[in-house]
Amino acid sequence: MEINNWKTYYNKIMNDFKFNKEDDLKSAYILKDIINKEQNNISTDILKKIIENKEIYIFGAGPSLKKHINQYLKEINSKNKQNDKITVVIAADGATKALLEKNIIPDIIVSDLDGDLNSIYYCNNKGSIIVIHAHGDNINLIKEHTPKLKNIMGSYQYPIEIENLINYGGFTDGDRCCFLAEKFNGKKLILGGMDFGEYITKYSRPNIKNEVEKGDEIKIKKLKYGEELVKWLKENGNCKIEFMK
Question: What is the pLDDT of residues 95-138, one digit of tens each?
């Protein structure tokens, strides 16, 4: 999604939630400054090489996540030829922990750093690229964790161009994974754990008491926007998109 198209959605979302746009911009520049200092980022060419013309399995942290990971493991052996990796795994933040429980290291993790950070650090050390997203509510997390991670790409949502960061559209971690794959010319997106309903899991919100609970009003509204944005991408993007059943 180009920035001009994203700007319309961005303004609608920010006004609906009454979020502070200036905090988004501040967060983006803090992320940029840390990356410039630490030099721990990768080039967009690397992301393109990983994603372009590949089948991309994207996992969100919804209630169907564990079922879809098991389904993925059954499918993957027939799709990946020996020494010829033709599929890619992108995890939305908290889904990383569930994948790691099945010994799957995602190729890319898209995160605003509020998921299970132990899993994110472990996967990063094993080779996962981390796309760190800046918004107004995670400035402290960006300051704490960005310097400690490697092979990162910075993303943001304020609708202007910022050098050395990417803004490709998307609001929740899950739909941002899809927009990332579209940006770098994925061939087909296969979505697992992307339920966009009213229920959330411990992978998404580690502080809830049960494995699955009904989300609060704000979380449910965020998921609705995520669903709307994936629908937009399906209708307007170049990638084929299908949901795992």
Answer: 999 999 999 999 999 999 998 999 999 999 999 999 999 999 99
Among residues 94, 49, 55, the alpha carbon closest in space to that of 244 is found at 55
Cα–chain center distance at 97: 14
CB 92 within 8 A of CB 113: no
3-class SS of residue 9? helix
CB burial of residue 209 (10 Å; 0-12, 13-18, 19+): exposed
Compute φ and ψ for 16, nearest 5 degrees: -65, -45
The pair of structure tokens assigned to 188 is: 């087909």
Identify each DSSP E strand in 6-76 by its residue range: 55-59
Q: What is the pLDDT of residues 35-90, one digit of tens each?
A: 999 999 999 999 999 999 999 999 999 999 999 999 999 888 766 655 556 789 99
Residue 25 tokens read as: 């911009």
- Residue 132's alpha-carbon distances to 76, 143, 146, 198, in angstroms, are 27, 11, 8, 26
Question: Is the Cβ–Cβ distance between 151 and 201 less than 8 Å?
Answer: no
Q: What radius of gyration do the chain's Cα atoms show?
A: 17
Q: Exposed/middle/buried for 236, CB within 10 Å: 0-12, 13-18, 19+? A: exposed
Domains of the chain: 3-243 (3.90.1480)
